[in-house]
Each structure stands twice: as structure tokens, then as C-alpha cells.
Amino acid sequence: MNIQFFMPTKVMMGKDCIAANAGELAALGKKALIVTGRASAKANGSLADVIAALSANGQEFEIYDKVMSNPTIDCVYDGANAAREAGADFIVAIGGGSPMDAAKGIALLARQDIPREELFSGNYHKDVLPMAFVPTTAGTGSEVTPYSILTNDKLQTKTSIASPLLFPKLAFLDAKYTEGLSKATAVNTAIDALSHSVEGMLSIRANKLSDCLAAESIRGIFSCMDSLKAGTLSFEEREVLLYSSMLGGVVISHTGTTAVHSMGYSLTYFRGIDHGRANGLLLGEFLKLVEKTFPEKVSEIVSLGGLPSANEFKAKLFELLGEMESFEADELEKYSDIAVNAKNVKNGIVVPTKEEILNIYKNSLMR
């Protein structure tokens, strides 16, 4: 049995865990750059809790709140410049996947002069600002991954900076920050976490340990499906989703993702469809494709949600996703041309052809 496992992020979970573990931040440095979006961290109380913890430690901070949804390459270069000008020696990221992904790029570029054309090369030295992450959605698991996913206009998709150097030192998981999320955001982020764990189990890099974590994540998310659909999540269910999202992040840290993510990026880039929703629209059809060759593996996955087949899995997701967007055949052809060349496509136990990718798009998105 060959297993490698590396998870250097210290995770602290529970209500008011930032205040309870404020001392953990003291070891990171003297001045933080807090990386976040415009409004949500202020509204949900996470920014105030971080500031209180830093102040209690006597640590200084400045705030960089220019991170947009689906952060760009320009954003991380601008944020890195802000970190240098502030004299920050560590990063605290607060928010969903966008601020957390941006923060990793900022932490890297604040210490390394990397030309834009080499940003995704993987050729980095070890000097990266230490990071502490506070997720405020239950979806991306970015608080425990070594990936920074950025919008790449040159390639008209998203591209990943990937390096073990980008693992945060600390992650604080407090479900109270998710209580104000809209139903749509709660659904989309939960489906994102689900796609991470499902794709992790379908990766050529999966092992028994990553599958155990993925299974725990999938069971947890399905246990909250009815409440997600009704928009009536309890605090306990929000904790389950946040925990399951973190587990999904640990999974893809070891396995990577598959064709589903590669295909979903075009829906986000060209149509502005939320990343988690994009994955959910495609995941069921991808499972149906895999089911033809590996029926036992797909049965193992869908049974975790109490379902008999990939078709019922797809139907369950579509119940959550609600009214569908409309697509034309020519745009799906374009998306297929982009997706078939993405590196994630070859990471699955089934590697779809361009024709199969196009069929997944059509069967998922055309009515």
C-alpha cells in the first residue's frame, strides 16, 4: 500500500475559535496584511474578530479589501505591492475562495519578483509570507490547500499556482460566519465542496486515506441536503458543512481535481456562473461517463448519499440547482476546445475525449 500524506496547516474549529486561539497568530509576525473582499468580512463579524485578536497580541495590521470574485492576476500583483508598502510580514485572509486564493498569490509575490509570464511555472524559492486563513463560506477548502486559482485572461480560463509553499500555517473555522449567507451561496459552496471530494475519489492520485476523508465529506454534505434545499440550515449543520468543506480541501491537496473543474471554468469565465454551481451542473454527467468503465467506484460514491446510480446523483444535484441557464451549441463547442487541453482532464481515472466532453456539456446544459 503506497500512501503519502502531507498536511502542514494547523486547523482550529469551533465557535469563537479565533479569540480562543489568538496566541497562535503571535508567532506569524509583527504586522499583518488582512486580505479580504469589500463587505462580507465586515458584515459577518470575522474582520472584527481578527482585528481583536491581533490587537490583543500587540500586532499591527493593514487591510487590503480589493479582492473581487474570481480574482485576477492583476489583483495579486497589486496586493503584493500593498503588502510590501505596508511592511507586512504575514497575511491573514478572510472570506470565501476568492480572498483565500488571492492571499496565496499575494504571499508569494510579496517576497518573490516573478514575471507574469512565469507566475504559473512552479519555479519558486522558499521565501513566502506565512498565512492564516479564516473561511467564511463552506465550499472551497482553500484554507488547507496549496493552490491559488486565478482568472487567466490570456487563456480565457482559470489557472492554478500550485506549490506546497502555499499551504497556510493556520486555519480558523467558525461556522457563525456562514450564518448570513444567502441560500444560493450556501448551496453553491456546498456543491463545490462535494465536487472536490467526489473528484478526489475519481483521481488517479487517490489512495485509501484520501478516500476515507472524501467519504466523510460526502456523507456530511448529503446529511444537510434537505436543509440546503429548504434554506433552513441549523448552526450544527453549518458546522458539518464547514468541516466537510475542509476535508474536501485536504482531499484535493493530495489528489487534485478532474475534468469537472476544467470544464466548469469556462462556465464561470464566459458566463459568470458561480464556480460551485458550474461544477454541480456537470458533475452528474461526468459520473455517468465514469460509471460505464468503473461502475463499482461510482456505486461506492453515490451510495454515500444514499443513491443507487449516477443518474439519481445528477437528479439530486439538479433539485438543489434550480432553474437552468440556456446555452447554444456553438458556445459549448468552444468550451470543449478549451477544456480538452486542460491538465486536470488527465488526472481522472477516465480521461474524456473532446467528443465526450462536448456530450457532457450538452447533456448537462441543453434542454
Describe this structure in words.
- It is a single chain.
- The chain has 367 residues and is of the alpha/beta class.
- It folds into two domains: 10-177, 3-Layer(aba) Sandwich (Rossmann fold), CATH 3.40.50; 182-365, Dehydroquinate synthase-like, alpha domain (Up-down Bundle).
- Helix content is 51%, strand content 11%.
- The chain has 16 helices and eight strands.
- It has helices at residues 17-20, 23-26, 40-43, 46-56, 73-86, 97-109, 183-201, 208-223, 225-230, 235-255, 259-271, 275-293, 295-303, 310-321, 329-339, 354-365, and strands at residues 10-13, 31-35, 60-64, 90-95, 131-135, 147-152, 157-162, 170-173.
- The strands form two sheets. Strands 1-8-5-4-2-3 form a six-stranded parallel sheet, sandwiched between helices. It has a two-stranded antiparallel ribbon with strand order 6-7.
- Helix 15 crosses helix 16 (354-365).
- The chain is globular, with a radius of gyration of 20 Å.
- The protein starts with 9 loop residues before the first strand and ends with a helix.
- The mean pLDDT is 97.
Rounded radius of gyration (Å): 20 Å
What integer is the average pLDDT?
Answer: 97
Strand order of the largest sheet: 1-8-5-4-2-3
> Structural class, please?
alpha/beta
CATH superfamily of the largest domain: Dehydroquinate synthase-like - alpha domain
Examine the coordinates and then state which fold CATH places here, giving the name of the CATH topology of the largest domain: Dehydroquinate synthase-like, alpha domain
How many separate structural domains?
2
Total helices: the number is: 16
* Biggest β-sheet description: 6 strands, parallel
